[in-house]
Queue: 2 jobs
Job 1
Amino acid sequence: MDAEEIGVKDIDDRGMTTITTKKQKDLYNMITTSKKYKNCYLKHSYRAIKSKKNTVAYVILDGKPRILKWFAPGFTRQMETEYSTLKKGSSALNMPISYEKDSDNNVLLMNYVMGENLCDVINDEKTVFSENQRIMVLLAGWFARFHRSFKTADQFHIRGDSVLRNFILADCIWGVDFEESRVGKPVEDIAGMCSSILSTDPMFTSEKFQLCKTFIASYVESVKWNLENINEEVAYALLEKIQWRPEVEETLRNHAHKIRKHGLLR
Ligand SMILES: Nc1ncnc2c1ncn2[C@@H]1O[C@H](COP(=O)(O)OP(=O)(O)O)[C@@H](O)[C@H]1O
Ligand SMILES: [Mg+2]
């Protein structure tokens, strides 16, 4: 059967969700052929979930809304990292609870955080500047708590993959996607966030620089350690993005160069 011909019954009975991509077809096949997911329905909105490499779906499993994260083949280690990070962090921090690690299918099941993706909120022209500033303070608080809570006597643990897309705004900020969590320096997370804020559309506006300033200042105020070489780290994080976004290479290079030379907090 062609991918286009597969229809998935929506739990709300509001119509059929048509499967159009290979990822969606594979997910549909996995769910329908696995005994474990016989009571699992794909919600119509799952196509809206943008994900980089894994297949992430909003599903109803045994009558409950869940996020099903199906890791790409060869990403078992990332699944283990995400599962253990969620297990450690979710009771004290705003991170989803992972109910189950299904190693047979390479799937993590977690609770669904209802809210808006932070990347969409920050970059929506309808979001006023003062609201974005307020969000920066919340985001800095989230990072301060994460770093404090995962810190050991001799090392820090960072969330990794610090980009706007990996946060959800509800009544507070929630972090998702912890597969790249690792030992590292807090400045790597903070710089990653700044580079994401600056380089998502609209790119490098003066408002975006202001937001980074608020974010960094608020983080530094809430923690007992310093951020070393933040400008250098932001420049590096921007250059790293070139591999994913070659079409804006020149813009990224120019701004990385300026930030390295003159600093971010202009
Ligand atoms: N528990 C969750 N609740 C609500 N939305 C989620 C949840 N987990 C992930 N998402 C959404 O799905 C997207 C992709 O999930 P993510 O774990 O980031 O996958 P990837 O590793 O492929 O980037 C996220 O950017 C977020 O918008
Ligand atoms: Mg992600």
Job 2
Amino acid sequence: MKTQIRKKYDDENGEENQMVKPKLKSVAVTVPLPVVGTTQEITWCPGCPNFLVLAAWKNALTNLIKQGYLQENFAMCAGIGCHPKIYDYLNISGVYGLHGRVLPVCLGMKLGNPNLKVLGFSGDGDAYAEGMEHFIHAARYNADITYFVANNQSFALTTGQSTPTSAKGFKSKAEPDGEYNMPLNPIKLALAAGASFVARINPKDIPHTQEIIEKAIKHKGFAFIESIQDCLIFDQNPGRDKLMYKIDNGKDMKKAMEIADSWDYNSKTAKIPIGIIYQEEKPILEEKWPQLRKLRDNKISWKNSK
Ligand SMILES: Cc1ncc(C[n+]2csc(CCOP(=O)(O)OP(=O)(O)O)c2C)c(N)n1
Ligand code: SF4
Ligand SMILES: [Mg+2]
């Protein structure tokens, strides 16, 4: 569990002051934290959609804990970027990963202890540029991991360069003529790679986002949730919310592909489906590998195995 160590008082004053005040040593104090949040100062820009994402995650985790999920059985990894700062704001044990390397760390956590509920958090640059190969293989392995990607179609933290999902013509300081290529469609890619749970959300709908997060965590297998959100500084899309509409939970791959195809991440007029686009039950990594299956069945980690 993350704890906050506060430096209580470290008197570095000169001799004169020490005569009136006794010199106190630094004292580590453990401050009790709210259940799933932390007291870290939030450094997102005021109004950033990541605040809404955080609210939905807090609601979902609180609800799941009320239902009997153990907070200490969750483990998280976040990449580097604006969105991944969520690592500091959720009171879940974990590892701050490298940019693009969230999923290998999540898989490592699973290999160490397959009983953990592993959560991964990335921005779109992290997931679809630096981390692309990991995304494909994680979907293919179908380990029981929930992977949340906040897609603001730009490398926001590093001042808004274009990512693989930026719209054609998207201008930034690094691409003054605008992006030359059409965006990648990560939903189609996830479906093609074998992800067993594929969903898209609008963070402005917090209850719906919370519901999808809870369903993703309850899903057995690789659950991918993509948030379509603005970056208020580098990629604003006024009116896009009105294009978003909810779909019924999808179980049919052909239909899911059609739904995925209906918005190409480039169009400013096409409707954008949100909800669970595809869900299927199939064997997970922890069942396929005998060594992991043994740990899972005995509810132990490598540390406790003989
Ligand atoms: C291996 C590596 N490449 C690049 C960087 C620089 N870098 C840090 S954050 C970032 C942008 C993150 O963009 P995204 O993943 O879309 O998240 P956002 O900030 O948009 O939420 C980049 C390029 C890095 N830290 N490490
Ligand atoms: S730069 Fe964009 S993504 Fe980053 S905190 Fe600000 S609004 Fe949010
Ligand atoms: Mg981004």
